[in-house]
């Protein structure tokens, strides 16, 4: 996919943050857009910002499998075909393995992993039929390394990474006209930390302030990096200098990265 003009792009979680910035970036490149979010007011704001673009908005809860499949069918009915799907919708949870509830664990997996898996599977036949398709799944730097109090988020994002990398190989081996990219953002200045669920003993305010300090990249910059990665057909798209640093540490040290994370966590999470 060398040119995005007139391509039909689907973006989930488009009501704010990276999703909104992606929709705006793609609209500026001439894409026709199907944007969705569970937050209908935020979604309406995004749609209003896409002045002059051929865009439609859809209320969608990505934790609902049947809703995702119905959404895929509706988008194809509305636009005729689909070329690009960006499974971006996601949430956060900060809690230790001992403290997190089953409901919180299920909540984050249903959105961050199953939302991506079902979103990919629902649209994949349509992407193949387009003759020029691309799947982009948003993982995280926490899909590269494990971090204390992020076990559930790690589980979801590692799963997204494995699922996406496997799919990319399958598409190549089957000679299908679908490219696949996995995105690993570092700290992005979005509202995800403010909307995160917290364990009982977590200091929510301190966690959010800490996130704000390490969030190095704006959503607009993240979107630009992601879209350029799509056009280059990159298998792994790293977003932000912290993402590049974490990826390098992981590659150089392997599992020996863990003592570094433990020292950081002792100073910042266990105080």
From TrEMBL:
Belongs to the short-chain dehydrogenases/reductases (SDR) family. Keywords: Oxidoreductase. The keyword Transferase does not apply. Transmembrane segments: none annotated. It is an enzyme of class 1 (oxidoreductase). The keyword Zinc does not apply. Its EC number is 1.-.-.-. Residues 7-191 form the Ketoreductase domain. The lineage of its organism: Bacteria, Pseudomonadati, Pseudomonadota, Gammaproteobacteria, Pseudomonadales. It comes from the Bacteria. Gene3D superfamilies: NAD(P)-binding Rossmann-like Domain (3.40.50.720). GO terms for molecular function: oxidoreductase activity. This is SDR family NAD(P)-dependent oxidoreductase.
């Amino acid at each position: 996919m060398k040119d995005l003009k007139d391509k039909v792009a689907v973006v989930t979680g488009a009501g704010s943050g990276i999703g909104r910035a992606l929709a705006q970036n793609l609209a500026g490149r001439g894409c026709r857009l199907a944007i969705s979010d569970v937050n209908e007011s935020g979604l309406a704001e995004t749609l209003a910002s896409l002045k002059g673009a051929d865009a439609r908005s859809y209320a969608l809860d990505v934790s609902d499998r049947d809703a995702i499949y119905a959404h895929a069918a509706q988008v194809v009915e509305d636009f005729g075909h689909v070329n690009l799907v960006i499974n971006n919708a996601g949430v956060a949870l900060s809690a230790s393995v001992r403290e997190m509830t089953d409901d919180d664990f299920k909540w984050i997996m249903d959105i961050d992993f199953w939302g991506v898996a079902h979103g990919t599977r629902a649209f994949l036949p349509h992407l193949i039929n387009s003759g020029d398709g691309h799947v982009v799944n948003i993982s995280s730097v926490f899909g590269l390394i494990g971090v204390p109090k992020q076990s559930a988020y790690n589980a979801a994002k590692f799963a997204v990474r494995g699922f996406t990398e496997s799919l990319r190989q399958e598409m190549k081996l089957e000679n299908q006209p679908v490219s696949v990219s996995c995105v690993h953002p570092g700290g992005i200045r979005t509202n995800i930390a403010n909307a995160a669920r917290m364990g009982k003993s977590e200091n929510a305010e301190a966690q959010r302030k800490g996130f704000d300090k390490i969030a190095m990249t704006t959503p607009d910059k993240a979107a630009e990096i992601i879209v350029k990665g799509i056009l280059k057909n990159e298998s792994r798209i790293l977003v932000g200098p912290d993402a590049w640093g974490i990826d390098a540490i992981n590659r150089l040290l392997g599992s020996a990265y863990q003592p570094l994370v433990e020292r950081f966590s002792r100073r910042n999470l266990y105080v």
